[in-house]
Amino acid sequence: MEEYSYPIDVDWTTEEIIDVVDFFEAIEKADEKGIIASELKDKYRKFKVVVPGKAQEKALFREFKENSDLEAYSAVKMLKDADDSDVIKI
Q1: Nearest to 26 by CA among 81, 83, 78, 66
Q2: What is the CATH number of the domain that holds 33?
Q3: Count of domains in the chain?
Q4: What is the pTM of this model?
Q5: Do you know which Gene3D superfamilies this protein is assigned to (predicted)?
Q6: What is the largest CA-CA distance in the chain?
Q7: Which tens digits make up the pLDDT trace of 53-72?
Q8: N or C: which end of the chain has fewer CB within 10 A?
Q9: Integer angstrom CA distances of residue 84 from 30, 48, 53, 74, 78
Q10: Please, what is the angle between helix 14-32 and helix 54-68, to 10°?
Q11: What does the DSSP 8-state code read for residue 5?
């Protein structure tokens, strides 16, 4: 796994930072070898608890893409039509 800089907010708690970083690490996994949809859904659900707004989500996705060249939005979009056992690969 490559080392990326993750977009975080200094106002988040340690647990919230962990949930956001876990989600972005799952996006890396989806890019490198694929991830089971149910695992990514769980990490995205936790991410959305920390980042409920679409505007902030888009800003974080954009910052992550600038740092890693990985597109979190495409993985999340694939989740909408995926069964829990499907593999998400971006």
Answers
A1: 78
A2: 1.10.220.80
A3: 1
A4: 0.94
A5: BH2638-like
A6: 35
A7: 999 999 999 999 999 999 99
A8: N
A9: 14, 18, 24, 17, 11
A10: 50
A11: P
